[in-house]
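During the reporting period the student researcher (J.K.) took over the structure-prediction task from the postdoctoral fellow and processed the backlog of single-chain submissions. One of the processed entries is reproduced below for the supervisory committee.
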Amino acid sequence: MPRPSFKNIGLRRDLNLSDLQSKDQALNNVLNNLVVGSDNKSFSGGDLDAIKGISNSTVTNRDIGLMAGLAVKNTVLEDGELVDKIATPVITVKNQLDTIIATTNDPPFFNGGDGLVAKFYDTDQINASLSKNTTGATIITPGENPQVTKPFWNNGVFEFSNKLDDTLGGANGLIQWQGFYVPDASGPSTFSFDTTGLVMFEVADEFGDLQVVQNTFAEERPIEHKSAMANELSVTVDAIDARTVIIGDQVTSAVDASGNAILGTEISSGLFVDGVGNTTITLNQSITVPDEAVLTYSIANKIGSEAFRFSHTESTLEKYVPIEIRLTYWYSDPTANYFNKYIDANLSTNVKDSGNWPYWYLYQSLPADFEEDSFKGFYDNRLLTGGGTIGPTDVNFSTQYAKWLSISPLTVTYAPPLRFANALRAEYTYNLIQNSNICSTTSTSPYTDNIEIGNKIISPAFTSGTQVSDISRNNIVIVNGTSSGDATVAVKFLDHRGFLDTQAATSVGNDVTITTTNGLKIGTVVVCENNPAGTDYIRVTSISSIRTFTTNIALNLSGLEEVFFFSDKGLNNNSLNNFCIGTLGREIATTASPGDTQLILNDVTGFGLNNVIQSSPYLPAIDPDDTSTLTRIVAIDPNTNTITINKPVEAGDDMVAGTTVVICPTATTQNKEACVIPLNTAPPFVGTLDGLRTTDGLGATVGLQFTHASSILKVRDFVAVNATATELSLGDALAFDRTIPITFNGTVYKVLASTS
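J.K. obtained the following structure tokens:
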């Protein structure tokens, strides 16, 4: 009888799907028609690409659930109602993250560090000859590579029950962190460390070179003291020796220059270090030591068991400016058993209380540059509290204008300084370092009182225009320029409001000579340290040349002195600067009547024949497409300040004395009256110290006249000066032909008037 035969169809269960010819096709077959959308599109294996490899990660269902609702939606009008619909094309989570990264940079500019990378070394890789001159670069034997390198920083607290790392051959060894610290505030940053191991800390100087600030290189360190001490708590040592001492050190021996033991009583009772300065060591007992005494400082009894500590303050850091650091921590004895190995790093700034040192202050490396259109670019170009510039200085095209938006009302309360004393905010003495933008306070108080961000710096150590960019109260002042050299100098701080420029100048009478008059305008306020007394502003009254100008009050400069220029107004509209080049204003000196073609001006200098003249509504309006509508100057008589124009004054009101006319370049085809602020706002009246008065147009005073009988004059106050009261009877003959009604509190009073 033939044996039965079997035919296998499908997959073998015991092979756990390993016999699939195509895993992707198999998945598609399983998912086919599992979910069918309204557009008849089915679910496929490609839709699961986003979670490939998720089983090997720490991502949970909850993590994925938190992503619900992240899809970007647009609000659209549908059937007359506003509804939210997922944007098309779909904006993925990766798209959103990419946008955030592109904006904030990777790593983010503000507190966006990812901690420091640590290098781990075995004890036999540590240089056998460590000294006070050892650095983080020489502490490792040349040619040795780390056993492992990895990111290793959370909050600056590290505890080890056994090995520093599983890759090391023994329980002891060395860890070295190196990277960049980015402060969140200008001024001091204090780094504090508690540790049971040997430690070295390095911080970059102003040139970017790492300098050792703490180097506890050995358990015992003999140090020679510079001078004799008589019953004092503090001893003086070299700065490099002071960096090797740590709070908690114990003096275990002391000898004089001949090698004889000293301080036996103090040492036996316990002589410890309570504090360490740049060149001083403060002890817990007063001691007396001779010249060249050598004291041995030791932590041999504390290594791996009891904590000792040190701190270092960088007092002149600038907000968000990175500074390189390097921290080295080690146990060099390969045979010792330490049961309490830890290091605790803490950070304190002007905005952060002393505590742990979070990783986001620390960067493994910094981008070569930040994108201008990122948040870093925005931050660098923001309008500072002390003012600044928006957009380019010179605008030649409309696309160069910058938009500025304020969510608060713009209030201008500017008043120019009357004299130098009004402009001077403060004057202090500061320590300066060449090529540094930090002004460090001296021991003399006050330090930073009355100084504001934006204040102008006046000092030979800084170039003209340098100003305050940040202040750490009573500590440092940060400026936007660098010092020309190392010095301790007096620095003046001038109010930046309205400040235009400063130049060296000489004067003869009312004439002043400077390097250049570019940027000066008629009316600009001028002050200098030895301004003459008075209650009137000193202003630029005329600009004679590229180097000379005149003032209304003589400056009386004694040789070459610095003068300071301030704006005469709180708000300047510079949007028309290029549009208005060559445009100037003049006043009518004598009233002109409709039909006149000759105008008498107060000044006929600065322009010539064929210049365009404008003054609405007295001169014809301009049609930009019709050059025949332009009014031009065809003759100039400098003797009488009279000009002749090719078109007569328009019919209507007289062109009264004081009216402003705008004189434009010959090629002008547009109305440029906006370029000149009316030089005299009194017309049709004449301005006086007491107010406005009426005039006949030729300078003579006339009574108030109204052209129309229905004219209305509104006044706030009505005062009769030297008036004579006359009691009238109904029968009296009065020389009047009209009355002027005056309404007061609802009652109408009438003033008798006449046209004669």
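The committee noted the following: Residues 220-298 form a domain with the Elongation Factor Tu (Ef-tu); domain 3 fold (CATH 2.40.30).
J.K. will present the remaining backlog at the next meeting.
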